[in-house]
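So, is this right?
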Amino acid sequence: MKIAVAMSGGVDSSAAAALLKEQGHELVGFTMQLWNQRRGVSVDENGDPLPSRCCSLDDVYDARRVAESLGFPFYVLNLEREFEESVVEPFIQSYLAGETPIPCVACNSRLKFASLDKMAISLGCEKVATGHYARVEHDEAANRYRLFRGRNHGKDQSYFLWELTQDQLSRSYFPLGEMQKEEVRDIAREANLYTAEKQESQEICFVPDGKYSEFIDRYLEHEGRSAEAPAGGEIVNTAGETVGTHTGIHRYTVGQRRGIGIAHENPLYVVQIERAKNQIVVGDADDLDSIEFTAKGVNWVAFDEPAEPVRANVKVRYRHEPAPATIHALPDARARIVFDEPQRAITPGQATIFYDGEEVVGGGWITRK
């Protein structure tokens, strides 16, 4: 096949390309320039660019070296404007609304796959390959593409792919879906690729130091929008009593324990963020437990929207162990999820994924209502 390969500059996409090349496929490599790390936003206290191991100019250079080493053409797509509009701005607005967003889902489905899909089709490519640890299969009987977890559950990335449409899944190819991480590095080593020992990125690419509230403050200041930053306000307990003050709701997340700044005989946790009242609500660990929540923007992957309740194992954040629940489809691409047992710190803004064993049934965005 002729395959478009998304090249991030990391070991996973490099090994995926090497594997496909060895299998005899015709490859065209693409890297997406998404964020200018030298812009006056992703900087430290001295104004120097923060180091990043994802989507940086160095990664573009590394991806090009891999393509040259393996002998296939390579192109860079400048998507900085689209990335800022589709990923960065919604990320900021979500934090300002008192949520805790996960931008990598939207980046994958709405930007990366959408952009690569168009480019792949224009060049006559049959598939778009990435280094994700996930699997996609075609069910001929149902005439449907099905998405599965990567065999390596420790690296599984199906969590970031649940928004992919049937059309996108039909052209998606995940060569690493059956592999363990060390196998992937071995492929890169055997191909003598520069990226074989490259370390992984664990943070959001445009916030490499993980300090989200500081990034938001710098971004708003850089754009002349500092007035949009939330002002300080009250910290209240679950009874509504004022117990302290906060410095802006975007500096807190549900489940947070450290950095609240209140002395108390028992540990206090952020259990709710009230944007309308500009309040942070704190409580005991037990106050974090919830048995149900609502999701919006639901995408059903395994089948069309169900008329009856669906039993599934549901994940409410990337590191959460999927828990048994019943999912009730609601109008307007929404769903109500009811767990068999209470779950800890279900956080608005995060993605939720529904699994049937290894298969991704669907997913959505956790919301308050």
Observations:
- The two ends are 46 Å apart (CA to CA).
- The CA atoms of residues 190 and 196 lie 9 Å apart.
- The chain has a mean pLDDT of 91.
